[in-house]
Structures are given as C-alpha cells and as structure tokens.
C-alpha cells in the first residue's frame, strides 16, 4: 500500500510541474567504444582505397600524382621551366651569361675559398668548419678575432680568394652561414640548422679528390642564382676517381647538404654517407659584397616573413 | 597587343629596354611588356642602364645612360639611333639641350657631346672635384642641375655661369658633436617649384628650398636601419615617396610629427626607381627582384605586379601619361577607345553620367517611413499656438517627467 501511495504522490507532483517531461540523459560513450568506432571507420577506408586501387589496376589506368605540398605548389611566374616565349628565354640566358658566376662556368678561374667564424668560435663550429675545409678543395681557414667582415673581404680580394664563408653561432651551436662571392658579390645569408659533423670513421674515408656536385630542385630564377652560388664554391672539374659526390637538395626552400661516396654494384649504385650534414634556409641575397648597413638586396625575407609566407604552398627557390 | 603604344619604358641591369603598355580593361589594370633592345651586342653587364630621360619635348627619343656608354633610342622606329662610349666611369644623370647630350659622370664632372657631329668629342662643362651619385635637372629653370653623392652634399649649379648657386649645409651635429654622415643616393625636383628633395643611404630624407637664405634643409626626417635608394614627389602636395634597399616604399609627409605616413608593400628586393605620373593616383615602381609594380597612391594597395625576368633599374613614363580605358563588355566601341584622363585622385565625371543618375533618382519610389512623420510633428510644434488650438492638440504642454522614488 505504501508503495502505491508513493507512486500516486509522484504522479501528482509531476502534474503540478505542468506535465513537463525531463530530457533523457545522453550518456557519454566510453573511450573504448569511441576508439573502436574510429578503428572501424579507418579499416573501412583502407578497404575502400584498396578496392579502388585494384579496380584501377584492372582497368589499366595510370597512377595518379599524389597530393603533396610540393605537387600542389602555387604557380609562380619566376619558375624557369614555365617560360615558353623564345624571346624571354634568350633574355634569361643572356642574364645568366652576364652574372657574377658566368666566368666560373666558363672555367676561367679555379675557386679559392676562405672560411672564418664569429669572434670567439665554440668547439662545434670550429669542428664543423674544419670538416668543411677538408671537403671543399682549395680551401683555407682562419680565426677572425676582432676584424670586421668588410676588412676580411677586402683582404681576401687582394689575396685572390673567390669566396668567403663565415660561420655564425648562437646558443653554443652554429646557426648561420654567410657566403660572399668575390670580388663583386653577391652575398647570401643562410640560416644553418641540424649540423651533424662526421665521425672519426667517416673522416678516415675522406680523400682529397675534387668532388662532383649535384644541385637539385633549384627551379626559380632566385633558386638558380643560389644554386650557381653554392656550386661555384667547388672546383668545376670533378675527379671521378675519388667517387665523391656532394648534394645540395632543395625541398620546400630548405637546402639539404649531403656528402657521399658511391660505388657501382651489380645493377645499382651503393652510397655511403661521409658527413657532415646540414640544412640551409635562405634569408637574403644582397647585391655586391657584404654591406649590412648600406647594401641593396636582390631578395630578402628579413622583417617581411608574415607578408611573404602567406600560404604553405609558396616557395621561393 | 604589340600594336598598342608603350606608355612606360623600363631599363634593366643587362641593358635591355622594355616597353610596357598599361591599360584599364573594364576597370582592371592590365600590362603587356615587350623587349625593345634585343640584339646581343647591346646586352651585357657593361650596358647596365643607370638613368633614362626624354631628349626633347616631342617625346620620341629616349636618352639612355648606361655603365659604359650613352645611347639614344627612337620610340618611333623602336631602334637605337646613336651610341657614344663614355670617356670615364659611369653615367649618373643625362639630359639634352641645344643638340648636346649632357652626361653626369660619377667621378665628378658634367660632360657634353654634340649629336650633330660624326665623331664624338667630349667637352667638360662642369668640374666638381667630388664623386657624385646622382645628377638631375630642374623642371622650372632648365639651366640648373643638382648633384650629390657620398660625402658630397647637395649642390645646385648654373650651367650658364658654371657656378654653384646653392650649396647645402649639413644638419647640426648630434649630441656627441659628431658629423651626420652624408651619402645622397637620389635627388628629386618638385614639378612646379624650385625646391629639391634628397634621400640618403644613411636613412635621411631632406627637403631644401634654394630660394630661402637658409642653407640647411627645411625638412629633415630620419628612419633607422633604412637605406634609401630613390625618391620622387608624390601627386599630393608636401608628400614624397621614398624607396629603400631592403624593399620598402614609404610615403613621407612634410607636415606633422611623424613624417613616415604610409608604407607600400609587396617588395622583396631593393626599390630602384619610383614614378608618380601627374594627375594619376598610381605609383609605378621597379625593383631588383625583377618585378614591375603598380600601387594605388591613396589606398596604398597593390594593383598589379609583373615579372619581367631581369633586374630592373630605371623607369620612364611617356608624357603626358595616359592610361587607356577599354571596355569590352559594352557595345559602345566609340567611347571605349577614348582615353580618360584622371584628375587628382578622382575620375572626371562626364555630363552624360550625371544625366543618367538624375533619371535614375527620378524613377525611384519615395519611401515613407517614421522619420518623415517625426519631422512633420516637429514642424507642428514650431507652428504658432493658434493653429494648434484649432487642431485641438495642446502642443504647449510639456511631457510629464517621471519622478523616481527615493530609496528608503
């Protein structure tokens, strides 16, 4: 009897609320259930993909180009391959023939390189510079002390150096590389990252042969300038006997440096990395030799990164 | 579109000259560029174009001052007519008067060569004893030229007397009593007056008035960490446009506390020359990043940029500068070919347009909303009391104010 009375009281109380039913409780799914659902979905997606691929293969249709950031690169008028007009191609060729590196590519001089540091170099940058010095033929290395870059450049021109490399450092690791082409410029400043110096075993294998240089993916006119600049540091005539190859590979505006020794096996080539390895990112190209105060820039990203890098699919090299 | 006339000419570091046709199609600016100097003999870094100017009022011959030579280019035949090798150094300013080409030479002299003679004979007109980086002629008094360079302040020379008429004085030394360094990179004369503005590689923009007894600048502005490479007078009064070596274009106003009023964006390389044609609200600029750009002067927005494949150094507009208006959608072909000259920042409103808008307004319905009624009520209030009593409305009575009870 007591139970029935309680039930009646409850119904009365509900009526007094105006017969408004409370919403049903939406129970949260457990994490496990969610994970299961997600797994199912992904499995199904994978299955669909495989089925599609199979049907495509059965039909004999060609494979599609994968959608990567590079394949979806923004169209750029400075990319050299896009130029069709013969008149313009002739002009570009003339421009390339008349630039500061044309005499190197005509094999008129042998490059001589000078490597220096910031004021008091730390051990990692000294070691890095020492290894660079061994890799680059005809290269010498000096401590900078208190001399300015301008006076180093002036001296280097007198002593017939053709390139000056300055390694900058911050927070106990090398972080910048300044490359100055002599005697008339240009000057390029790169941000240097991921420096991994070669170990003892790798250094043992190093020979003094002049290496081959591979410049990859320098597509735009600016990329061409940078590629020519980096290439002209090394001797134009590689000694194939040494089987040394140096690669500057540009990918999404990051230039990767690798140094290998190759060997022809049956059917394919075997590579052995010799180090060091590092990554460069272009910051500026300045006309003339180093002049940070009064120089004119061909291209610079200082202070306008947000203005220039508006999409992930825009590249400058 | 090669048949259309070029209204801009652009020079580059390898000595190529490009003709550019700027036109407005349905309100959108469009550009067509064409190479005018093509033969390989004239394309080299030795022929880097440093300065360009029109030879006379007919505007059919361009004088080109390059690194090693002086050339004249006929815009009628689209071909080079004359070429003279420079006696020394580089050219930094060029103009023509009385069948003579006057060339400013960076080692510090103004030399002339006559075009009528077959063999070029260079005669020294002025000797400056100091290196110069820029030489320009005054628009108002054509016998006056201005020079300036590194450690060489602005000087105005009279060609007739071969004397200095105005010798600028450096601004006061700084708080440590050190001299402010001088390195004039460009000079711009005002179109109507004799006043001269200069910009320096140490980040100074200065305005001089040679008519005043004072030799120091009337206006001096400084921007830290900027290398100014070029300057021009803006279409608005008391304003200049200054380009820098790091790829910035500033609008400088003489009045007010902060002289750097605005900035024009989208440059990635050094700005080499800026041009503001009179009666146009457009800013044309060339830069070392191989782009030719058009900005709107008043809104400062980029209207157009065109990649021209070589480093650009100079720009020269046809005078008077006219942007051709083409409207392809409308069938009225006669009107479309007619060029429309713009007045200061505003298009000229044609009479026909005014008629069309008047008709449009007449056709429109009158909308009667609450605002009209309110105004009529207000009118009634203003009317004398007698009229109001006739209507039976007591207008003199004020609306009752609500009295709030005090909180107890």
From TrEMBL, chain A:
InterPro entries: Brix, IMP4/RPF1
Swiss-Prot/TrEMBL GO biological process terms: maturation of 5.8S rRNA; maturation of LSU-rRNA
Gene Ontology CC: one annotated term: preribosome, large subunit precursor
Region ranges (Disordered): 19-65
Alphabetical list of PROSITE patterns matching this protein: BRIX
MF terms in GO: rRNA primary transcript binding
Pfam families, per the entry: Brix
Compositionally biased spans, kind Basic and acidic residues: 34-49
Gene3D superfamilies in alphabetical order: Probable brix-domain ribosomal biogenesis protein (3.40.50.10480)
SMART domains: Brix
Every Brix domain range: 111-291
The protein's name in its UniProt record: Brix domain-containing protein
Species annotation: Parthenolecanium corni
UniProtKB/TrEMBL annotation, chain B:
Signal peptide start-end: none
Taxonomy, superkingdom: Eukaryota
Organism: Parthenolecanium corni
InterPro entries with a match to the protein in the record: WD40/YVTN_repeat-like_dom_sf, WD40_repeat_dom_sf, WD40_rpt, WDR74/Nsa1
Keywords: WD repeat
Protein name per its UniProtKB record: WD repeat-containing protein 74
Annotated GO CC locations: nucleolus; preribosome, large subunit precursor
WD repeat intervals: 143-167
Record-level GO BP terms: ribosomal large subunit biogenesis
Biased composition (Basic residues): 398-408
Gene3D superfamilies with a match to the protein in the record: YVTN repeat-like/Quinoprotein amine dehydrogenase
Spans annotated as Disordered: 370-408
